[in-house]
């Protein structure tokens, strides 16, 4: 009996040691991935600064950060969707409809600016929740389908509510986040830092954040372990809509106008930023802080191409190549990932 017990203890110890080694290896792999993403950004900055002396000026770097803020905010929602092995193609259209409603509330109806902002954020959140309902309650087979439909609906409504006319003349309080600074730092950059800080805590320190990772990793296992998968997906897509509307608020502040074609193709940059940041289309893998690095890589690339006077058509080609490379890197990561036993 004692011999059997000793053998069982040794086996349990061996299993625990193996699991510990696997955990350490996964942590090392993730750390190398994060360092690789940061190194890519540094190398890109060095190359562009060599090609264009104007790149490393304070004015230009501030401009890059300010221009990246809208994409940084809207990419948070895309990150959450991709983390659950889904996708949100409607975020650009949600942004457009949210800011058009903001214009109606704040300018046409002369509402209190803060109330108008809250209502616009609510519009974005509700449309995102609608995406979640399509996916969970109506059981549409994939969020690609549901969010594609919502993308067309929201864009059509954005064009219809003001007969495709832009709205301008927003109150200074509404423009504050988009075009004001707190000391030397743009308010939009501070907002991005706050949002990513909160989301980092949310994803790493709350049960809901852990459930989002779990659902992306294995839906059926999450369901069997007692996680309310439908609730998690509703939260994810509602948050995606909220962040799209919040990004729209920054955009309105920058240009002092709401126009129905705003946000066109923003989902493309967001998806690219999330994948460049190390998230996987297969779900369950990714870090929120790496997403902002992905956003900066795209922003720096766009800025560098502008400084080098590259034709806008070829800029589009370059971004397309980056997206393909990002997806290809995701495929390589999945193939090289250790098989879980």
TrEMBL record:
CDD domains: TM_PBP1_transp_AraH_like. The chain crosses the membrane at residues 33-52, 64-82, 89-108, 114-135, 156-177, 183-203, 232-251, 271-301, 313-332. The keyword Cell membrane applies. GO terms for cellular component: plasma membrane. It is a multi-pass membrane protein. Residues 1-14 have a biased composition (Basic and acidic residues). It comes from the Bacteria. Keywords: Cell membrane, Membrane, Transmembrane, Transmembrane helix. GO terms for molecular function: transmembrane transporter activity. It is found in: Cell membrane. Residues 1-27 are annotated as: Disordered. This is ABC transporter permease.
């Amino acid at each position: 009996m004692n011999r059997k017990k000793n053998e069982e203890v040794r086996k349990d110890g061996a299993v625990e040691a193996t699991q510990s080694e696997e955990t350490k290896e996964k942590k090392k792999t993730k750390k190398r991935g994060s360092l690789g993403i940061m190194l890519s950004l540094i190398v890109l900055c060095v190359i562009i600064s060599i090609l264009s002396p104007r790149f490393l000026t304070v004015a230009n770097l501030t401009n890059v950060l300010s221009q990246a803020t809208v994409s940084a905010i809207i990419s948070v929602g895309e990150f959450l969707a991709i983390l659950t092995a889904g996708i949100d193609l409607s975020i650009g259209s949600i942004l457009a409809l949210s800011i058009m409603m903001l214009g109606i509330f704040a300018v046409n109806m002369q509402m209190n600016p803060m109330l108008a902002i809250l209502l616009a954020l609510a519009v974005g959140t509700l449309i995102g929740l609608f995406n979640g309902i399509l996916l969970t309650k109506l059981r549409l087979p994939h969020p690609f389908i549901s969010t594609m439909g919502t993308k067309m609906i929201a864009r059509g409504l954005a064009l219809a509510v003001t007969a495709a006319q832009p709205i301008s003349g927003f109150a200074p309080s509404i423009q504050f986040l988009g075009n004001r600074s707190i000391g030397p730092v743009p308010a939009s950059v501070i907002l991005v830092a706050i949002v990513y800080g909160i989301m980092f805590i949310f994803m790493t320190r709350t049960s809901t954040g852990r459930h989002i990772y779990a659902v992306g990793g294995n839906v059926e296992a999450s369901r069997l372990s007692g996680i309310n998968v439908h609730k998690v997906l509703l939260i994810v897509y509602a948050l995606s809509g909220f962040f799209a509307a919040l990004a729209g608020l920054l955009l309105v502040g920058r240009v002092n106008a709401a126009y129905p074609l705003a946000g066109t193709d923003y989902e493309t940059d967001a998806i690219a930023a999330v994948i460049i940041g190390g998230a996987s289309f297969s779900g369950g893998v990714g870090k929120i802080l790496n997403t902002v690095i992905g956003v900066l890589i795209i922003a720096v690339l766009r800025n560098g191409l502008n400084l080098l006077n590259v034709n806008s058509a070829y800029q589009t080609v370059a971004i397309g190549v980056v997206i393909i490379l990002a997806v290809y890197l995701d495929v390589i990561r999945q193939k090289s990932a250790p098989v879980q036993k």
